[in-house]
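stage 2 :: seqdesign
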């Protein structure tokens, strides 16, 4: 069994990106990232802070647009439009969640596909579906990097994704399908989940329930990727019962230190890619 070290892998990716950013700057290409935050959701503030820090470390310019919780849809769309038009901005991210009176899907649609570094614009999701080069949602993208870095085979494997969210489950399933896995997507209405997971060579757990995946659900030698971040008074826990499952797994990601650090590293990767592509136009 090998424990996947997402922290070190993400650090290496960021170091490589730092050199790449330096090189781009010497050619007059300045990656710049804009984040829109609406309201003052506590978790969002923490996420935004870590994105800012990563940008600083890499030499990527960073701009934060903080909007009042009572911002109207029209105002939000106008701000996105102005960021779309500003040529020095390489990537735009709208931090979710946004207040309930706003339509997040309409906002995501407004972000120019060429600046959509989170990969949430339906145009980019469609390209992922068609297996075309695009911006892929950062968490599934980071997981695919893990497979790559650890030389974990995907083709022909039975991959089970638990969770069907637009940001993790669905793009994850599509990414694995694009690499020729046989993919099953499970969700809250799935019957006999254990029977399905017991046949999986690869399990991706993206549920949001502490220690949901237990050793009884896992086949000997399976690859276990734990996306879950469940904050409790005792600390942060994954969706996988790590201690029980690790004895059966061939590879397993810990929480924290597995998938989490990869998400920010892939966001930075997407920003640099957007900057390079906008320069090629
Ligand atoms: P979500 O709440 O949008 O989706 C959860 C999914 O789990 C749903 O599709 C639901 O059908 C499924 N589910 C719920 N109960 C189930 C059950 N009993 N059996 C089978 N499926 C069930 O969550 P999300 O945004 O996809 O996030 C999932 C988890 O991953 C959360 O803990 C979140 O914090 C974490 N997350 C981590 C990162 C990271 O960078 N590591 C990024 C995004 C999300």
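stage 2 :: out
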């Amino acid at each position: 069994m090998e424990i996947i070290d997402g922290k070190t892998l993400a650090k290496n990716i960021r170091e490589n990106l730092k050199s790449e950013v330096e090189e781009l700057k010497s050619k007059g290409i300045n990656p710049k990232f804009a984040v829109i935050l609406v309201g003052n959701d506590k978790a969002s503030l923490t996420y935004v802070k870590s994105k800012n820090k990563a940008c600083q470390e890499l030499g990527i310019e960073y701009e934060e647009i903080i909007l009042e919780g009572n911002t109207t849809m029209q105002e939000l769309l106008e701000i996105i439009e102005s960021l779309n038009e500003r040529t020095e901005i390489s990537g735009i991210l709208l931090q979710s969640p946004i207040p309930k009176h706003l339509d997040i899907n309409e906002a995501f649609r407004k972000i120019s596909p060429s600046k959509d570094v989170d990969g949430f614009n339906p145009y980019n999701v469609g390209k992922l579906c068609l297996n075309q080069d695009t911006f892929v949602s950062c968490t599934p993208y980071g997981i695919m990097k893990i497979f790559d870095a650890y030389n974990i085979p995907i083709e022909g494997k039975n991959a089970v994704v638990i969770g069907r969210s637009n940001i993790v489950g669905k793009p994850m399933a599509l990414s694995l399908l694009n690499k020729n896995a046989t993919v099953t997507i499970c969700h809250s209405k799935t019957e006999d989940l254990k029977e399905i997971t017991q046949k999986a060579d690869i399990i991706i757990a993206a549920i949001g329930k502490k220690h949901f995946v237990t050793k009884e659900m896992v086949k000997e030698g399976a690859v276990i990727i734990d996306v879950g971040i469940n904050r409790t008074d005792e600390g942060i826990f994954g969706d996988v019962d790590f201690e029980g499952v690790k004895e059966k797994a061939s590879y397993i990601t810990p929480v924290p230190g597995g998938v989490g650090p990869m998400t920010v590293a892939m966001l930075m990767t997407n920003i640099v890619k957007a900057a390079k592509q906008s320069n090629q136009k």
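stage 3 :: structure notes
- The pocket of nicotinamide-adenine-dinucleotide is lined by residues 139, 162-165, 167-169, 186-188, 190, 193, 206-208, 227-230, 259-260, 263 (CB under 6 Å).
- The chain has a mean pLDDT of 97.
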